[in-house]
Amino acid sequence: MATKAITTKQPLPPIKLWAPAVGVAWLIPGGGHFMLKRTGRGGLIFVSVTAMFLLGLMMRGAMFQPQTGDILTTLIYCGGFIGDLSSGLLYLLTTWLGYAQPDVAGHVHDYGTKFLVGAGLLNILGMVDAFEIATGKKS
Amino acid sequence: MPKMNLSHFEAALLFALFTSIVLGVVTKKTDHDRLRYGLRSFAYFMAALFGLAWLMHFGHG
Q1: Which of A3-12, A18-27, A64-73, A124-133 bottoms out in mean pLDDT, i.e. has the lowest?
Q2: How far apart are CA A45 and CA B27, in angstroms?
Q3: Average of pLDDT values for A75-88?
């Protein structure tokens, strides 16, 4: 007879506890860790995400704009946009200051586009870590 | 903004390096475990990179 594991859903901790750290972690890579006095780990996240983003820019990677259509187009363009946006201030400054590149053919540009999305995805990991530290799930 | 041209290998190496650092930082609970996980993650990236490269090399004949 199969046994069914009983799982109880944990209530979400108060938003005041984690929202500032997660918000700062989004805007500034590693910023949430700095705010929570984890400077070493914050520094590593900051250097990694920023370096990856700048390399993507220097390789003339393109920023995704959300587009809908068939499922693959929606997934690629909306997912890519979320990935780009997750870099926080780096993404905002790039678009505001006009450094966002148009999508052009070429393998180096393609690597650059992936680096830009990758930097955002790494920042999401940093935000999740900041959330776990702020809520006491992790030291 | 200066322009940079990286080869596929250089781009993959840098991607592996930065991703391994962040994975190491966010995954484990102690600094020792973080360092070990980061190094192991980087080694796996490199193994996949070289493994797939040789696979494609032999696949193309």
Answers
A1: A3-12
A2: 12
A3: 95
pTM (2 decimals)?
Answer: 0.90
Cα distance between residue A26 and residue A8, in whole Å: 29
Tokens, residue B46:
């490199």
Measured between CA atoms, how close is B61 to chain A, in angstroms?
23
Q: How many Å lie between the alpha carbon of B10 and the closest alpha carbon of chain A?
A: 10
Interface probe for A, chosen from B5, B17, B26 (most Cβ of A below 10 Å), is: B26
Provide the residue type at B40 as one letter.
R
Q: What is the dihedral of CA A82, B21, B3, A24, to 10 degrees?
A: 50
CB of A103 closer than 8 Å to CB of A47: no
ipTM for this prediction: 0.91
**Token match 């929570």: residue?**
A36
- Residue B39, chain A, CB below 8 Å: the answer is no
